[in-house]
Design goal:
Length: about 120
């Protein structure tokens, strides 16, 4: 299954081995980087969404993700990531569909480097 293969690659990249639980690793890395709030806290505005989405769709780095994302998928993830309100009840969620996981993973990859992104 593509989703399982993607999570296995992510687990290996995080030093957890294939099939490893990436949730705790994401939580640890998030705590080290002091990621607390949503994108709004970082200075990202909704007016920037079209540019961010266009760049995400053109960037080949999203191709190996466990799930293909459309422009609407990216918009929904960005909307959900604007606040610190959780997208699900489980802070250690590892679902590639979870906006919290996406927000943390993007931050950890340093795709968002400045508040003016």
């Amino acid at each position: 299954m593509q989703q399982d293969a993607g999570l296995n690659r992510l687990a290996r990249a995080m030093g957890r081995g294939a099939g490893g639980d990436v949730g705790p690793a994401i939580a640890e890395m998030t705590a080290k980087r002091h990621v607390r709030g949503g994108f709004a806290e970082l200075g990202v505005t909704r007016e920037r969404f079209p540019r961010i989405i266009e760049g995400a769709l053109q960037d080949n780095s999203h191709k190996p993700h466990p799930r293909d994302a459309s422009a609407e998928d990216y918009r929904e993830m960005l909307d959900a990531s604007m606040s610190s309100a959780p997208g699900c009840a489980d802070e250690l969620c590892t679902s590639p569909h979870c906006p919290i996981v996406l927000r943390k993973f993007i931050w950890l990859r340093q795709d968002i480097q400045t508040p003016g992104f």
